[in-house]
Amino acid sequence: MTTPRPEPHIAVATAKSVRLGVLLAAVGGFLDAYTFITRGGVFAGAQTGNVVLLGVDVAGGRWVEALAFLPPLAAFVLGVATAEFIALPAVAKIVRRPVRAVLVFEILVVLVVGFLPATVPAAVVSVILAHVAGVQVTTFRVLVDSPYNTTMTTGNLRSMAMAAFHRVVEHDLEAGTRARRFGAVISGFFGGALLGAVAVELFGLRAIWVVALMLTIALALFVFDERSPRPRSPKH
Fold first, then answer.
1. pLDDT > 90? residue 175
2. Distance, C-alpha 195 to centroid of its chain
3. How far, CA to CA in Å, does 4 sit from each of 1, 94, 176, 191, 228?
4. CB 3.0 to 4.6 Å from 69: which of 21, 54, 63, 107, for a disulfide?
């Protein structure tokens, strides 16, 4: 007797769930803290910060320093393209579980990065992790029923503020729920950045392996939800 394949909506619900969103936001915050502290003050996912720092260096005539911000920007764009490629129907026939494939890809990459010695140029590591961030932010972009971001927090902060406004002014209960969801994701990002800074202090360059553990937990959520007999909703 063959085991029936899990229904697709289970994986979709997990991918949009608040718990996964908080966990991936923590990953995003950790990666930014890690690359900023250990790899030359460059952000892995917060490309807005990289663009600002690029502009500051250009304005100051520091052309060599400015060039350091271009590779992460390009790698992030390539990461977005990679995620879109994986989502193509033709590729989906080969990669049957693209969301899990992305998580496995991220885990393998951060494990490899943790083995890289300090002699490896910071630009190499920042490019690798910026690509990972681009893949993640493109693959996971819906929180229950709202667009969100797992690698930067400005848009999430705006969404939380808007939802909180409608909850207070219009007494919209659903808006209050959305505000709490985004608040949880923002807290996850902050917590990830805090954890990243502490982990770097304790473990140095190997601190990136904490991200591998976090992503493994994220991957386990899909397996758990498939095996759970109760119906799953993305609202938790």
1. yes
2. 15
3. 9, 19, 39, 38, 14
4. 54
The model's pTM: 0.85
Domain range summary for the chain, segments of one domain joined by +: 11-226
pLDDT above 60: residue 66: yes
Both tokens of 37, joined, read 């502290």
| CA distances to 77, 98, 198, 203 from 128, in Å | 12, 20, 22, 20
Residues in the chain: 236
Rounded to 5°, the CA angle 37-39-40 comes to 85
In CATH, the number for domain 11-226 is 1.20.1250
Share of the chain above pLDDT 90, in %: 54
**How far is the C-alpha of 38 from the C-alpha of 142, rounded, in Å?**
31
Cβ–Cβ < 8 Å for 12, 140: no
